[in-house]
Recover the amino acids of this structure.
């Protein structure tokens, strides 16, 4: 953090500490203290990391300063609670946290949290006072909504002014949704009270977890600690999140957001909810009021979203890329229990007509790399696995006359390494798939040992920024062997191996209930010697990334392990696709010039980049209404262009017509769910324009199908040319 931004004009550190103490004395809250258990865990975690972690890290004074900065930013990421004098006062510990972690002396972390707790209570009280004043929305003033790079407030007066503008912005956002003044005040009063109560209700375990993870996350992004209650409830919380809509939720202290969408689940089938979307409010059934959930705890939001199968939940959300002036949209999702079959591989059969040829395309949608390991160990012939299910789908494709396949790995966060290797083996002769380098330096090569190739035809692998780990291993192997054309977006870049280590296994005291340490123990490398770490897999044909996607991925972490390389494995390429890829790129580029979807995406990216440069938002009602109308006009333009394209008697000859012939997910929906979806769609069409979301169209998949159709044409031409040459000889 740039300390030149700190308000050094406050005077000496002693006066800063005294000033802070005097202000905090006005709010009487219980101070939290570390327990002896936390002292033991702190010492043990440091020992394990220094002895066993893949990355060598020295816990010294310089690292101590980074931990202090990180811990403060975890508690107050937008600099809306701590004063500059608080941060200056905390500096007295900047070179001591490393020694404290080693010795289990955690008093500084708890003192910092107790100051934070007091500040939150104080600003809640101020926000409630502001709500009782008359707010003027004709004034020409702005609110700095993104304060990550801003200085801390110099004093209480400046902090209160920031909060006056925050309250005004929150009020205006609800006013634009046509809420009545009394309802707005009620909603915001509850919001600020709930946010403060969450902090006040935190226990010493929570504080220790925040602090120890400030240290561990600086070692490496995928290293972390979970308290016993967290690790016990982790799977439960995941299941709670999955039931109902099929989405894993997260919380940053203010907003509940969508972390991942479960493939085949209700949210995935509905189509418009995306990773990174923030949930502002939740409504039950097709009609009725919304419950504001900003500031709520994760479990409370989950309870609202869960419900009976076949019922409808409405989520008022804003997208990850949306600025503070964006109006939220409403997503209708019919609740259902996410079945095992829905989380398994699914498939589509599509037809691409380009004026000369009709090509039948098979799409395999892989949500994760899964394996029922227990059933496999028990020799159960009916065990489920990615590879078995894909084999079955390939047989269907063969029977249906499919000419080429797309393996869709978008949003696939990984899973079983074994399955990534086995799946790769379906498309190549035997050979190496991935290399693993462990913390002690040993390199292991994982191989496919089966010489049988199940599918030899044209193949495209589709990826995006949320394709990670095992997905990257599979995509990289297909690229290195020349087995498939890779299209989409740069992948996540997670090329590391983690182990979960219960801390109780490293102590003799059975009465202690310790947490778990997840630690990075190795790194994956491609068979060509390069790593998937940080850089990910770069597609052969790259689509423009959606706005906001730069916030995802390994490269977004400052302390992520860097890209690295080792010696290449010995392998034989399946094919050299360099000439085909060059021609496919040209054909793709010519289509993007006439495909309005890509043109619209380009404009949205430009607007996002422009908005990103300005961390402020107008508090003028007139100006905000103008911005709302601009966004509505852009969405309407896109909708009209899509309708015109679909209605055209003679479509653009460059854009091959893509038709869905079959979708296996349709067979998984119950009659109740289908009926409820129809009712939800009818209800959504009657929503006010600013809340209704346009129908989701997967234009990236459509373009991928066109690329594959071109690839099939090239392969067919090569076969004909080879046959002609042979006949002449």
């Amino acid at each position: 953090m740039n300390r030149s931004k700190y308000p050094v004009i406050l005077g000496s550190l002693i006066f800063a500490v005294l000033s802070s103490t005097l202000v905090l004395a006005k709010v009487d809250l219980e101070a939290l203290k570390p327990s002896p258990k936390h002292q033991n865990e702190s010492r043990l975690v440091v020992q394990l990391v220094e002895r066993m972690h893949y990355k060598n890290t020295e816990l010294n004074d310089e690292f101590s300063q980074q931990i202090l900065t990180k811990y403060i930013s975890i508690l107050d990421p937008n600099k809306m609670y701590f004063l500059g004098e608080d941060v200056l006062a905390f500096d007295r510990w900047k070179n001591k946290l490393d020694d404290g972690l080693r010795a289990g002396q955690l008093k500084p972390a708890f003192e910092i949290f107790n100051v934070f707790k007091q500040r939150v209570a104080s600003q809640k009280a101020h926000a409630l006072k502001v709500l009782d004043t008359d707010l003027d929305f004709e004034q020409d003033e702005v609110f700095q909504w993104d304060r990550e790079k801003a200085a801390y407030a110099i004093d209480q007066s400046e902090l209160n002014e920031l909060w006056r503008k925050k309250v005004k912005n929150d009020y205006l956002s609800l006013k634009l949704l046509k809420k009545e003044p009394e309802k707005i005040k009620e909603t915001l009063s509850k919001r600020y009270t709930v946010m403060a109560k969450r902090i006040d209700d935190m226990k010493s375990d929570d504080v220790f977890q925040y602090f120890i993870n400030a240290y561990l996350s600086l070692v490496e992004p995928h290293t972390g600690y979970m308290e016993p209650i967290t690790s016990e409830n982790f799977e439960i919380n995941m299941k709670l999140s999955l039931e109902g809509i099929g989405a894993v939720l997260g919380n940053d202290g203010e907003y509940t957001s969508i972390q991942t969408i479960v493939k085949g689940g209700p949210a995935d089938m509905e189509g418009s909810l995306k990773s990174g979307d923030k949930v502002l409010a939740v409504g039950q059934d097709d009609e009725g009021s919304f419950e504001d959930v900003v500031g709520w705890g994760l479990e409370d939001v989950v309870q609202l979203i869960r419900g009976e199968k076949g019922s409808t939940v409405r989520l008022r959300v804003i997208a990850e890329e949306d600025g503070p002036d964006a109006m939220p949209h409403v997503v209708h999702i019919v609740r259902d229990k996410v079945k095992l079959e829905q989380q398994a591989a699914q498939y589509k059969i599509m037809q691409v007509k380009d004026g000369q040829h009709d090509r039948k395309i098979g799409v395999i949608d892989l949500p994760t790399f899964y394996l029922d390991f227990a059933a496999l160990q028990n020799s159960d012939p009916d065990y489920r696995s990615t590879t078995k299910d894909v084999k079955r789908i390939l047989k269907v494709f063969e029977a249906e006359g499919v000419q080429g396949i797309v393996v869709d790995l978008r949003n696939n966060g990984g899973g079983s390494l074994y399955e990534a290797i086995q799946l790769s083996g379906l498309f190549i002769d035997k050979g190496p798939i991935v290399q693993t380098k462990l913390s002690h330096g040993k390199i292991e090569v994982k191989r496919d040992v089966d010489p049988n190739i199940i599918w030899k035809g044209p193949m495209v692998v589709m990826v995006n920024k949320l394709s990670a780990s095992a997905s990257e291993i599979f995509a990289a192997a297909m690229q290195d062997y020349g087995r498939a054309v890779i299209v989409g977006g740069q992948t996540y870049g997670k090329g590391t191996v983690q182990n979960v280590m219960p801390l109780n296994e490293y102590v003799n005291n059975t009465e202690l209930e310790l947490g778990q340490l997840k630690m990075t123990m190795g790194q994956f490398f491609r068979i060509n010697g390069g790593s998937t770490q940080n850089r990910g897999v770069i597609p052969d044909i790259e689509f423009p990334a959606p706005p906001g996607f730069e916030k995802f991925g390994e490269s977004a972490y400052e302390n992520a392990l860097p890209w690295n390389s080792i010696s290449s494995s010995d392998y034989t390429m399946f094919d050299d696709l360099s000439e085909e890829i060059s021609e496919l790129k040209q054909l793709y580029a010519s289509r993007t010039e006439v495909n309005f979807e890509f043109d619209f995406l380009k404009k949205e990216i430009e607007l996002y980049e422009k908005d990103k440069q300005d961390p402020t938002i107008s508090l003028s009602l007139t100006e905000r209404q103008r911005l709302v109308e601009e966004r509505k006009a852009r969405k309407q333009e896109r909708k009209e262009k899509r309708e015109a394209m679909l209605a055209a008697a003679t479509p653009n000859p460059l854009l091959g017509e893509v038709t869905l012939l079959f979708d296996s997910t349709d067979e998984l929906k119950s009659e109740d769910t289908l009926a409820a979806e129809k009712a939800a769609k009818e209800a959504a069409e009657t929503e006010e324009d600013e809340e209704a979301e346009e129908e989701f169209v997967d234009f990236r998949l459509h373009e991928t199908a066109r690329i594959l159709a071109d690839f099939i044409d090239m392969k067919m031409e090569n076969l004909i040319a080879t046959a002609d040459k042979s006949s002449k000889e």
